[in-house]
Design a protein that fits this description.
Blueprint (H helix, E strand, L loop, with lengths): L2 H18 L13 H9 L6 H4 L14 E5 L4 H6 L6 H13 L7 E4 L6 E4 L2 E4 L4 H18 L3 E5 L1 H8 L5 H4 L3 E2 L7 E4 L3 H4 L4 H21 L4
The structure holds iron/sulfur cluster.
Amino acid sequence: MNTNRTRVAIHNRNMRTDAEEFARPAQPPDTTSWSALREAAKDCEACHLYKGATQTVFGEGPKGATMMLVGEQPGDYEDVAGKPFVGPAGKIMDQALEEAGIDRTKVYVTNAVKHFKWEPRGKRRIHQKPNSREIAACRPWLEAELRIVKPKLVVAMGATAAQTIFGPAFRVTRERGKVLSSKLAPRVLATVHPSSLLRQPDEASREREYKRFVSDLRAALYAAGEE
Ligand code: SF4
């Protein structure tokens, strides 16, 4: 094959990808009204992810909740329902919250990225991890939620949530379970994303990791001053 022609084809493909996968910082309205914020987020087109998703999945929970749980992004179920953490990972999270003594109706639950990123595989929509540009584009929505809810403690679940709050060098494996401080929130505890419990290779490791997750949530409850 003609090498120059191949280079041009790759260049054109990359150019097309860059143009299609645009991402600029979202601009939430300056408001103290959670409802107004949520309404505005429905129309966000700051990055290309809105195009493939059914709807914006904004956070949910009481304004003034002492604890805010932050995940990565909505999954297939959440995208259809328009609610965070209602799929399999949400169910295991609910079970762990209950076991840790945390009432889910009293915590605010949201994601670092508000639209579902996926790729087709047959008839299925397979989760794709959001990249740093998409995370940065969506971050103003999380900042706005934090400004309004003002939780005493944020639980960052998984690498995407933790890196949104602490930056790309943050490693959950190193800092898991510690109460740390960041510019975004004064008190943050990082743990794994509940979906990681579903990916464990066998029942024994799933049980072990589930117990660790519950233990992190208990530590969060204590740190939020709820126990
Ligand atoms: S993912 Fe976030 S920044 Fe991108 S369009 Fe959706 S709400 Fe806006």
